Amino acid sequence: MRRSIAVQGGMVLVLGIALSACGGGGGTKAAGEQTLKVGVDSLPASQGNPFNSAVSPGVYTYAAIYDPLTFVDATGQVKPWLATEWKNTSDTTWNFTIRDGVTFSNGETLTAQGVADVANYLKQNPEVKQSVVANDLATIKSAKALDGKTVEFTTSVKDPVLPNKLTELLIPAPKALAEGGVKGIAAKPVGTGPFQVENWGGNKITFTAFEKSWRAPKAGGLEIQAMQDPASRLQALQSGQVDLITGVSPDQVDQMKGATQAEVSLGNQVMSLAFRTVKGKDPVDSPLTDKKVRQALNYAVNKQGIADNLLLGKAEPVGQGPTEKVVGHNPDVQAYPYDPAKAKALLAEAGHPNGFAMSADVVVGSFPADADIYQAVKQDLAKVGVNLTLNQMTFPNWMQRYTGNSWKTEAFGLSWNALPTMDPTRAMTNFTCLRAATFFCDKPTADHLSAALTNMDADKRAAQLRKVVAEMHENPPALYLVHQITIVGKSAGLEGAKDDNRFFRYDQMVKK
Fold first, then answer.
1. What's the pLDDT tens digit per position in 82-123?
2. Nearest to 70 by CA among 14, 143, 128
3. For residues 476 and 270, is the Cβ–Cβ distance under 8 A?
4. Full DSSP string of 207-240
């Protein structure tokens, strides 16, 4: 049966929507001679390989080089990008129409066949088929060109949010990818974005304008430099060495006045400590296997105090994973109130009247004030008798333990990240027994989530997700903390520097 699905809750876009005012216009001669300078905490670990990351820090670099088929903005709307329209032609097939007149920086032309080749490479090539993006696009079975402009994606199961997911599929030049493999494209990235790499150094990338890009830039050059220390990034901004910085700390905002500005916004991630209650099918020996204990820890932490005192009063305490602009957010589910007395009562009912000791593996530097937030959690838990030991580790070590579920602690830091798709199901799946390396399992909730994953009716799917959210609040798989904030610093003279789901429109940036 054929069907077209309209936008509902930012999930799926109806056939026939055109992109308006997306291409960047050519700037004045003075603007064209400008070089934009950006300071980030780190460059992509896999250099120009667009398949190993779909979020920060890699996206800040890839947004200059590559384009996806679709783009999901901060409001959750799916917008045309390299694909101008799409329709769901059966339960497991989608047709995407490819934009005319798009070229890669090496002169290749964007075609439906090229898009199909990249998608199939991602699914079939041993170099990348276990990558982050390949895993996120696991429902794609194959892709083929129906004609010069139309590519058909076939999925292994019903996938109602495939258009959202394709915002993760950044398209490198297909022939360059086929000839050099992922190592070749990593060393010499070739995309359709507004800039092309001139030199990729150890901590700085220099770009030149790709004037034939379908979204040609106003500036003539771009530099993206890694500056790991937040203080160094701020100093570089204040001295005029850079025009834009990411990862601004809340305590730096008051220092940005006049010639520099801080833009604070609610992100689309929820910070939490994940509870580890199982390893595979086997329960672990931990007080956290008791629901009352997990609820008690949620009551024990003053989340409003964290938001007010550590996050500029801009963040919000939460009791669920999906944020307000994400499909499935349940407005009836509020944050656990700060109630130490109730926390102690629940601990006593669970057989821990004197509390207990636990540990958590965490990475700091990923969210604004995250180190201070973890310390606040530790202090609040101590007030109800729970002695929390925080083990700080590097992100690579954290990722190794996360991938293999090889934790030696009772909990670990894990965000509910709806980026870049603005769909919550990947994050929600991580906190259930649907995840291959399971650390928490509530079988009825997992079954309800599984049913929602393949529901092609947008309204019914959203209702199912809201039900799952309520269940995951009542039987919490995590200590829910706060809806985090994002802080970007920029020169007052920089125009067009909007952080849209951590995707910078470099083509629109220009200095006054």
1. 999 999 999 999 999 999 999 999 999 999 999 999 999 999
2. 14
3. no
4. EEE-TTSTT--SSSEEEEEE--SHHHHHHHHHTT
Instruction: Establish how many alpha carbons lie within 13 A of residue 207's alpha carbon, considering only the half-sphere containing its beta carbon.
Output: 34
What lies within 8 Å, CB to CB, of 419 at 6+ separation is 54, 55, 267, 268, 269, 501, 502
- Whose CA is closest to 361, among 382, 390, 404? 390
Domains of the chain and any CATH numbers? 29-243+493-511 (3.40.190.10), 266-486 (3.10.105.10)
Confidence of residue 229 (pLDDT cuts 50, 70, 90): confident
**In 3D, which of 262, 267, 259 has the Cα closest to residue 248?**
262
Residue (of 139, 468, 408) closest to 276 by Cα position: 408
**β-bridge pairing 221-226 and 35-40:** parallel
Percent of the chain residues topping a pLDDT of 70: 94
- Average pLDDT across the chain, whole number: 91
Cross-strand bridge partners of residue 226: 40
pLDDT digits (tens, 9 = 90+) for 242-267: 999 998 999 999 999 889 999 998 88
pLDDT above 90 as % of the chain: 77
Q: Which residue has the tokens 């997911």?
A: 165
**Cα angle value 62/366/391 (rounded, 5°):** 140
pLDDT tens-digit map of 276-287: 999 877 888 999
Which residues does 172 contact at the CB level (< 8 Å), separation at least 6? 48, 50, 66, 104, 118, 185, 189, 190, 191
The pLDDT of 45-68, averaged and rounded, is 89
Single-letter amino acid, residue 403: T
Q: Which residues contact 392 (CB under 8 A, 6 or more apart)?
A: 362, 363, 364, 371
Closest CA to 381 of 417, 411, 406, 422: 411
- CA 462 to each of CA 13, 72, 210: distance values in angstroms, whole numbers, following the listed order: 15, 18, 41
**End-to-end alpha-carbon separation of the chain, Å?**
54
pTM score of the predicted model:
0.85
* C-alpha atoms less than 13 angstroms from C-alpha of 287 in its C-beta half-sphere: 23
Question: Which residues are registered as beta bridge partners of 403?
Answer: none
Tokens of 309: 């005192």
